[in-house]
Amino acid sequence: MALTGHPSTKEDILQHLLKRGHATAQALAESLEISPQAIRRHLKDLESEGAIVHRSVQAGMGRPQHVYHLSEVGRSRFPHHYDEFAVSLLDTLAETVGRDGVGQVLQKQWERKAIAYREQLGSGSLRERVANLVELRRAEGYMAELVELESSPEEPENRFVIAEYNCAISSVAESFPSVCGHELHMFATALPDCQVERTHWTIDGDNRCGYLIQAHRD
């Protein structure tokens, strides 16, 4: 939702981070003239909403400080027309090269993204790589959650579900639903030793997109 009307304290924090790039809780408290305790409560809420993220920075001999900055979700709360531009651009491209041509361009884009994901996921356990993937998706505005399914005699292997409650490309997906197929392939490419299946799809009316991930069986 875009920021309108009189800003709240949370909106003040988001605007400060948008202008400054990053800040500590203490710096925010001093700038906004609010107690550090109140600022930390707001920061905790904003982080749970996925609007901000933090990194730990060592300052001298003391405890590491949390430095906060906006996530893609946080940036999306300010007015913008990126989705409209992206859909308009793809429509123009479709008129020029046809929808099949657009599909080829999108497929190439997702292939590049899959390679980038694979490099960032590392070479750890399946659980570690899937958790890293969820963090990458959160940073991109997908409001992703990770669920580890319980094993059973019938399903002894580790199985995970990634649920995404916000689609960062929803406008594009509505006009060009083929991107969702490319996205599914992207996950499979980023996790080459896994089988990836779609369990839920917002385009079908679900409240989320869901992906079941499990290791390939011999």
TrEMBL record:
<dbReference type="InterPro" id="IPR036388">
    <property type="entry name" value="WH-like_DNA-bd_sf"/>
</dbReference>
<dbReference type="InterPro" id="IPR011991">
    <property type="entry name" value="ArsR-like_HTH"/>
</dbReference>
<dbReference type="Pfam" id="PF08279">
    <property type="entry name" value="HTH_11"/>
</dbReference>
<protein>
    <submittedName>
        <fullName>Iron-sulfur cluster biosynthesis transcriptional regulator SufR</fullName>
    </submittedName>
</protein>
<dbReference type="InterPro" id="IPR036390">
    <property type="entry name" value="WH_DNA-bd_sf"/>
</dbReference>
<feature type="domain" description="Helix-turn-helix type 11">
    <location>
        <begin position="10"/>
        <end position="54"/>
    </location>
</feature>
<dbReference type="InterPro" id="IPR013196">
    <property type="entry name" value="HTH_11"/>
</dbReference>
<dbReference type="InterPro" id="IPR014075">
    <property type="entry name" value="SUF_FeS_clus_asmb_SufR_cyano"/>
</dbReference>
